[in-house]
Specification:
- This protein has five helices and no strands.
- It has about 70 residues and is mainly alpha-helical.
- α2 packs across α3.
């Protein structure tokens, strides 16, 4: 099992990004955020604002509640 620090806090977000074939830079441009910040959100080091959550959901075409359902180890 990978160390807790490498387990994404929002695995549904990470999965949705992977399914689109976009990289973090492409998605960050579409959602008007920084790619490094987006990476930190996925890993659980940052918490996205409600506005950013909505922009990411729109950019990915998925429900916000689905993307940001937290999974605890």
């Amino acid at each position: 099992m990978p160390p807790a620090s490498t387990v994404p806090r929002f695995p549904h977000l990470a999965g949705a990004i992977a399914m689109t074939g976009q990289n973090l830079t492409q998605l960050s441009h579409r959602a008007d955020c920084n790619a490094q910040y987006l990476s930190q959100i996925i890993r659980g080091h940052r918490t996205p604002s409600p506005a950013l959550r909505a922009r990411l959901a729109e950019a990915l075409g998925r429900p916000e509640a689905e993307l940001f359902a937290e999974v605890t180890p």
